[in-house]
Design a protein that fits this description.
Layout: H1 2-16, H2 25-31, H3 40-53, H4 68-83, H5 93-107
Helix pairs in contact: 3-5, 4-5
This protein binds heme C (HEC).
Length: 110
């Protein structure tokens, strides 16, 4: 009985935690024509910005769960929502762009 309850708790938690895949050079290569001079370091920075800022209200959403078109609308919308709350870490325009490039790049990762 106790085991059954623990089992269900484990399922609920694992369903909420998205494991992000580690960006590689091949992800950068896929988008370099769209983002000239984009580097793996910048992509990794975008991942850490995403993890830092976008977990303040809800769990992480998988980058592949939305299309580029959707992310272009969602990220500015979410950053605006974030910046309306003075108790949260402020998201600068630069950080917003970094998050947006990261989710768009990784939305097409295999
Ligand atoms: C201030 C709290 C807050 C922060 C910070 C926040 N979100 Fe959200 N997010 C929400 C709420 C609330 C919803 C539910 C959607 C609604 O309001 O209709 C949501 C929904 C979403 C959705 C689903 C939208 C859809 O139409 O399917 C995505 C994707 C998302 N957030 C991504 C992000 C990203 C990326 C960031 C970081 C830039 C972020 N969120 C930061 C509050 C937040």
């Amino acid at each position: 009985m106790k085991k059954t309850i623990l089992f269900f708790i484990a399922i609920i938690f694992s369903a909420c935690s998205v494991k992000l895949i580690a960006p590689t050079e091949s992800d950068v290569a896929r988008v370099i024509s769209k983002y000239p001079n984009y580097s793996l370091a910048q992509l990794q920075q975008g991942k850490s910005d995403y993890e830092k800022y976008c977990t303040q209200c809800h769990g992480l959403k998988r980058p592949s769960s939305k299309t580029e078109e959707k992310w272009n609308k969602i990220v500015p919308w979410m950053c605006k929502k974030n910046n309306e709350k003075p108790n949260l870490h402020h998201i600068s325009d630069e950080t917003q762009a970094s998050i947006l490039k990261y989710v768009i790049t990784m939305s097409s990762a295999k």
